[in-house]
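Review form for a predicted model. The reviewer records the input and the model, then writes brief findings.
Reviewer: anonymous (R2)
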Amino acid sequence: MTRRELLAALVAATAARADSGAKMSHISAINDEIGLTFDETVAFAKQYGIQWVELRSAQVPGKLRYCETLAGADLRDFRKRLDDSGLRASVLDSSLLKSVLPGTVSEKREDFYVRYFAEMGLDDAALFRNRLDMLKRTIDVAHGLGTREIRVFSFWRVTDPTPHFPKIADVLAEMADIAAKENCRLLIENEGSCNVATSAETAEILRLVPSKGLGLNYDPQNSMPIEAQPFPEGYAKLPKNRIGNVHVKAEGLFGPKRPLDWGAIMHAMLSGGYIGRFSLETHRGHNSDNVKASHQCMEKMIGLLEAV
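Model under review:
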Protein backbone atom coordinates (compact mmCIF):
# COMPACT_ATOMS: atom_id res chain seq x y z
CA MET A 1 0.00 0.00 0.00
CA THR A 2 1.39 3.39 -0.99
CA ARG A 3 1.49 6.35 1.37
CA ARG A 4 -1.33 7.99 -0.61
CA GLU A 5 -3.48 4.86 -0.38
CA LEU A 6 -2.78 4.61 3.35
CA LEU A 7 -3.83 8.22 3.92
CA ALA A 8 -6.99 7.69 1.86
CA ALA A 9 -7.86 4.62 3.91
CA LEU A 10 -7.33 6.51 7.17
CA VAL A 11 -9.51 9.39 5.96
CA ALA A 12 -12.24 6.94 4.91
CA ALA A 13 -12.11 5.14 8.26
CA THR A 14 -12.29 8.43 10.17
CA ALA A 15 -15.24 9.57 8.08
CA ALA A 16 -17.01 6.25 8.66
CA ARG A 17 -16.55 6.54 12.43
CA ALA A 18 -17.82 10.12 12.39
CA ASP A 19 -20.86 9.10 10.32
CA SER A 20 -21.61 6.23 12.68
CA GLY A 21 -21.32 8.53 15.69
CA ALA A 22 -23.58 11.12 14.08
CA LYS A 23 -26.20 8.50 13.37
CA MET A 24 -26.03 7.11 16.91
CA SER A 25 -26.73 10.60 18.23
CA HIS A 26 -30.24 10.12 16.81
CA ILE A 27 -30.87 7.08 19.05
CA SER A 28 -32.65 7.34 22.40
CA ALA A 29 -34.86 5.16 24.58
CA ILE A 30 -37.43 5.68 27.29
CA ASN A 31 -35.62 4.87 30.51
CA ASP A 32 -38.13 2.44 32.02
CA GLU A 33 -38.45 0.51 28.73
CA ILE A 34 -34.80 -0.58 28.80
CA GLY A 35 -34.35 -1.27 32.50
CA LEU A 36 -36.39 -2.13 35.57
CA THR A 37 -34.01 -0.05 37.70
CA PHE A 38 -31.86 3.01 37.07
CA ASP A 39 -28.72 0.86 37.08
CA GLU A 40 -30.22 -1.51 34.49
CA THR A 41 -31.09 1.47 32.30
CA VAL A 42 -27.51 2.72 32.47
CA ALA A 43 -26.11 -0.72 31.68
CA PHE A 44 -28.38 -1.02 28.63
CA ALA A 45 -27.39 2.43 27.38
CA LYS A 46 -23.68 1.69 27.77
CA GLN A 47 -24.02 -1.65 26.00
CA TYR A 48 -25.32 0.06 22.87
CA GLY A 49 -23.48 3.36 23.12
CA ILE A 50 -26.64 5.37 23.70
CA GLN A 51 -26.06 8.95 24.84
CA TRP A 52 -29.69 10.00 25.30
CA VAL A 53 -32.56 8.74 27.45
CA GLU A 54 -36.15 9.89 27.39
CA LEU A 55 -37.27 10.18 31.01
CA ARG A 56 -40.59 8.83 32.23
CA SER A 57 -40.38 6.77 35.42
CA ALA A 58 -38.23 7.92 38.32
CA GLN A 59 -37.54 4.19 38.81
CA VAL A 60 -38.09 4.30 42.54
CA PRO A 61 -38.21 0.65 43.77
CA GLY A 62 -41.72 -0.42 44.75
CA LYS A 63 -43.27 2.96 44.03
CA LEU A 64 -45.13 4.40 41.06
CA ARG A 65 -43.48 7.74 40.50
CA TYR A 66 -42.75 9.70 37.35
CA CYS A 67 -39.80 12.03 36.84
CA GLU A 68 -42.26 14.92 36.43
CA THR A 69 -42.90 14.74 40.20
CA LEU A 70 -39.24 15.02 41.26
CA ALA A 71 -38.31 18.04 43.35
CA GLY A 72 -35.58 19.35 45.61
CA ALA A 73 -32.93 16.87 46.67
CA ASP A 74 -34.56 14.03 44.72
CA LEU A 75 -34.34 16.01 41.50
CA ARG A 76 -30.73 17.01 42.11
CA ASP A 77 -29.81 13.41 42.95
CA PHE A 78 -31.45 12.08 39.79
CA ARG A 79 -29.62 14.62 37.65
CA LYS A 80 -26.30 13.76 39.31
CA ARG A 81 -26.86 10.08 38.58
CA LEU A 82 -27.53 10.90 34.96
CA ASP A 83 -24.40 13.05 34.70
CA ASP A 84 -22.24 10.47 36.46
CA SER A 85 -23.49 7.85 33.98
CA GLY A 86 -22.68 10.01 30.97
CA LEU A 87 -26.34 10.16 29.93
CA ARG A 88 -28.37 13.17 28.79
CA ALA A 89 -32.12 13.72 28.93
CA SER A 90 -33.70 14.05 25.51
CA VAL A 91 -37.36 14.50 26.55
CA LEU A 92 -39.25 14.66 29.84
CA ASP A 93 -42.37 12.51 29.46
CA SER A 94 -45.12 14.25 31.38
CA SER A 95 -48.71 13.09 31.84
CA LEU A 96 -50.10 16.59 31.22
CA LEU A 97 -53.58 16.61 29.65
CA LYS A 98 -54.21 12.89 30.01
CA SER A 99 -57.57 13.72 31.52
CA VAL A 100 -61.11 14.63 30.45
CA LEU A 101 -61.63 17.95 28.69
CA PRO A 102 -64.35 19.76 30.67
CA GLY A 103 -67.72 19.56 28.93
CA THR A 104 -66.92 16.32 27.12
CA VAL A 105 -67.57 12.65 27.70
CA SER A 106 -64.61 10.46 26.85
CA GLU A 107 -65.00 7.21 24.95
CA LYS A 108 -61.42 6.17 25.70
CA ARG A 109 -59.06 6.47 28.64
CA GLU A 110 -56.20 4.45 30.07
CA ASP A 111 -56.72 2.80 33.44
CA PHE A 112 -53.02 3.12 34.27
CA TYR A 113 -53.20 6.91 34.29
CA VAL A 114 -56.51 6.96 36.15
CA ARG A 115 -54.85 4.95 38.94
CA TYR A 116 -51.70 7.06 38.75
CA PHE A 117 -53.61 10.29 39.32
CA ALA A 118 -55.87 8.73 41.95
CA GLU A 119 -52.79 7.82 44.00
CA MET A 120 -51.91 11.52 43.97
CA GLY A 121 -55.46 12.47 44.99
CA LEU A 122 -56.28 14.03 41.61
CA ASP A 123 -59.45 13.67 39.57
CA ASP A 124 -60.26 15.13 36.16
CA ALA A 125 -61.56 18.39 37.59
CA ALA A 126 -58.43 18.92 39.68
CA LEU A 127 -56.15 18.02 36.78
CA PHE A 128 -57.74 20.67 34.57
CA ARG A 129 -57.92 23.28 37.32
CA ASN A 130 -54.28 22.79 38.29
CA ARG A 131 -52.88 22.31 34.77
CA LEU A 132 -50.81 25.52 34.73
CA ASP A 133 -49.32 24.90 38.16
CA MET A 134 -48.51 21.36 37.08
CA LEU A 135 -46.96 22.71 33.87
CA LYS A 136 -44.75 25.14 35.77
CA ARG A 137 -43.60 22.36 38.09
CA THR A 138 -42.85 20.16 35.07
CA ILE A 139 -40.86 22.96 33.43
CA ASP A 140 -38.79 23.26 36.60
CA VAL A 141 -38.13 19.51 36.49
CA ALA A 142 -37.17 19.68 32.80
CA HIS A 143 -34.67 22.44 33.56
CA GLY A 144 -33.31 20.43 36.47
CA LEU A 145 -32.82 17.38 34.26
CA GLY A 146 -31.21 19.34 31.46
CA THR A 147 -33.85 19.16 28.73
CA ARG A 148 -36.19 21.71 27.17
CA GLU A 149 -38.55 19.17 25.58
CA ILE A 150 -41.71 18.09 27.45
CA ARG A 151 -44.16 15.48 26.12
CA VAL A 152 -47.88 16.33 26.58
CA PHE A 153 -51.26 15.03 25.38
CA SER A 154 -54.67 16.32 24.21
CA PHE A 155 -57.29 15.02 26.70
CA TRP A 156 -59.07 11.66 26.60
CA ARG A 157 -60.61 10.94 23.23
CA VAL A 158 -64.28 11.66 22.52
CA THR A 159 -66.40 10.15 19.75
CA ASP A 160 -65.80 13.11 17.44
CA PRO A 161 -62.85 15.26 18.54
CA THR A 162 -63.00 17.80 15.71
CA PRO A 163 -65.63 20.17 17.19
CA HIS A 164 -63.51 20.41 20.34
CA PHE A 165 -60.27 21.32 18.60
CA PRO A 166 -60.65 25.10 19.10
CA LYS A 167 -60.95 24.63 22.88
CA ILE A 168 -58.10 22.12 22.96
CA ALA A 169 -56.02 24.54 20.91
CA ASP A 170 -56.74 27.37 23.35
CA VAL A 171 -55.51 25.23 26.26
CA LEU A 172 -52.40 24.14 24.40
CA ALA A 173 -51.63 27.66 23.16
CA GLU A 174 -51.68 29.07 26.69
CA MET A 175 -49.43 26.29 27.92
CA ALA A 176 -47.11 26.54 24.91
CA ASP A 177 -46.62 30.26 25.45
CA ILE A 178 -45.67 29.66 29.08
CA ALA A 179 -43.23 26.94 28.01
CA ALA A 180 -41.66 29.12 25.32
CA LYS A 181 -41.05 31.95 27.79
CA GLU A 182 -39.15 29.44 29.93
CA ASN A 183 -37.10 28.21 26.95
CA CYS A 184 -39.00 24.93 26.81
CA ARG A 185 -41.12 23.29 24.14
CA LEU A 186 -44.15 21.08 24.59
CA LEU A 187 -44.29 18.06 22.28
CA ILE A 188 -47.84 16.87 21.78
CA GLU A 189 -47.94 13.11 21.27
CA ASN A 190 -50.42 11.73 18.77
CA GLU A 191 -52.10 9.13 20.96
CA GLY A 192 -54.96 6.79 20.08
CA SER A 193 -56.64 7.25 23.44
CA CYS A 194 -56.52 11.04 23.11
CA ASN A 195 -58.20 13.60 20.87
CA VAL A 196 -55.15 14.11 18.67
CA ALA A 197 -54.35 10.71 17.20
CA THR A 198 -54.22 10.67 13.39
CA SER A 199 -51.82 12.57 11.16
CA ALA A 200 -54.65 14.82 9.94
CA GLU A 201 -55.68 15.64 13.52
CA THR A 202 -52.07 16.31 14.45
CA ALA A 203 -51.57 18.63 11.50
CA GLU A 204 -54.76 20.52 12.35
CA ILE A 205 -53.93 21.10 16.00
CA LEU A 206 -50.45 22.31 15.08
CA ARG A 207 -52.01 24.66 12.54
CA LEU A 208 -54.30 26.04 15.23
CA VAL A 209 -51.38 26.49 17.65
CA PRO A 210 -48.50 28.01 15.65
CA SER A 211 -46.54 28.82 18.83
CA LYS A 212 -42.85 27.91 18.82
CA GLY A 213 -43.60 26.45 22.23
CA LEU A 214 -45.51 23.52 20.69
CA GLY A 215 -44.03 20.73 18.60
CA LEU A 216 -44.77 17.08 17.95
CA ASN A 217 -43.79 13.82 19.60
CA TYR A 218 -44.44 11.66 16.54
CA ASP A 219 -45.63 8.08 17.05
CA PRO A 220 -46.99 6.55 13.84
CA GLN A 221 -47.76 3.29 15.65
CA ASN A 222 -50.27 5.08 17.87
CA SER A 223 -52.43 6.11 14.94
CA MET A 224 -52.47 2.76 13.13
CA PRO A 225 -55.75 1.46 14.63
CA ILE A 226 -57.62 4.47 13.22
CA GLU A 227 -55.41 5.61 10.32
CA ALA A 228 -55.00 3.38 7.28
CA GLN A 229 -51.55 4.58 6.20
CA PRO A 230 -49.59 6.54 8.86
CA PHE A 231 -46.59 6.40 6.51
CA PRO A 232 -46.03 7.66 3.89
CA GLU A 233 -49.50 9.14 3.37
CA GLY A 234 -50.04 10.33 6.94
CA TYR A 235 -46.49 11.58 7.35
CA ALA A 236 -46.88 13.74 4.25
CA LYS A 237 -49.54 15.79 6.08
CA LEU A 238 -47.30 16.73 9.00
CA PRO A 239 -45.27 19.95 9.39
CA LYS A 240 -41.85 18.29 9.40
CA ASN A 241 -40.07 21.24 11.03
CA ARG A 242 -42.16 20.79 14.19
CA ILE A 243 -41.29 17.16 14.87
CA GLY A 244 -39.12 17.15 17.97
CA ASN A 245 -39.06 13.48 18.92
CA VAL A 246 -40.11 10.11 17.47
CA HIS A 247 -41.32 6.99 19.27
CA VAL A 248 -40.45 3.56 17.87
CA LYS A 249 -42.37 0.53 19.16
CA ALA A 250 -41.57 -3.18 19.00
CA GLU A 251 -44.78 -3.83 17.08
CA GLY A 252 -43.69 -1.44 14.34
CA LEU A 253 -40.24 -3.04 14.13
CA PHE A 254 -41.30 -6.68 14.18
CA GLY A 255 -45.09 -6.92 13.84
CA PRO A 256 -46.84 -9.27 13.51
CA LYS A 257 -50.09 -7.28 13.37
CA ARG A 258 -49.06 -3.75 12.37
CA PRO A 259 -45.43 -3.52 11.23
CA LEU A 260 -44.03 -0.26 9.87
CA ASP A 261 -41.22 0.32 7.40
CA TRP A 262 -38.94 2.02 9.89
CA GLY A 263 -36.02 2.00 7.51
CA ALA A 264 -38.03 4.09 5.05
CA ILE A 265 -39.31 6.36 7.83
CA MET A 266 -35.80 7.02 9.16
CA HIS A 267 -34.49 7.67 5.66
CA ALA A 268 -37.31 10.09 4.82
CA MET A 269 -36.93 12.00 8.06
CA LEU A 270 -33.14 12.25 8.12
CA SER A 271 -32.88 13.14 4.45
CA GLY A 272 -35.50 15.81 5.12
CA GLY A 273 -33.36 17.42 7.81
CA TYR A 274 -34.71 15.84 11.01
CA ILE A 275 -32.27 16.53 13.85
CA GLY A 276 -34.11 14.88 16.76
CA ARG A 277 -34.06 11.35 18.08
CA PHE A 278 -35.74 8.02 17.38
CA SER A 279 -36.66 6.88 20.87
CA LEU A 280 -37.42 3.26 21.72
CA GLU A 281 -40.75 2.67 23.46
CA THR A 282 -40.90 -1.11 23.35
CA HIS A 283 -44.42 -1.16 24.83
CA ARG A 284 -44.70 -4.80 25.80
CA GLY A 285 -45.24 -4.42 29.54
CA HIS A 286 -42.95 -3.15 32.28
CA ASN A 287 -41.23 -6.43 33.09
CA SER A 288 -38.14 -8.49 32.26
CA ASP A 289 -39.72 -9.75 29.02
CA ASN A 290 -40.11 -6.15 27.87
CA VAL A 291 -36.45 -5.43 28.63
CA LYS A 292 -35.44 -8.53 26.67
CA ALA A 293 -37.53 -7.33 23.74
CA SER A 294 -35.89 -3.90 24.07
CA HIS A 295 -32.51 -5.47 23.30
CA GLN A 296 -33.90 -6.97 20.10
CA CYS A 297 -35.52 -3.66 19.19
CA MET A 298 -32.38 -1.63 19.81
CA GLU A 299 -30.26 -3.96 17.71
CA LYS A 300 -32.69 -3.57 14.83
CA MET A 301 -32.98 0.20 15.24
CA ILE A 302 -29.22 0.62 15.12
CA GLY A 303 -28.99 -1.62 12.06
CA LEU A 304 -31.71 0.34 10.25
CA LEU A 305 -30.12 3.66 11.12
CA GLU A 306 -26.67 2.57 9.99
CA ALA A 307 -28.18 1.51 6.65
CA VAL A 308 -29.71 4.95 6.04
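Findings: The chain has one domain: 25-307.
Further findings: The domain at 25-307 is CATH 3.20.20.150 (TIM Barrel).
Recommendation: see findings above.
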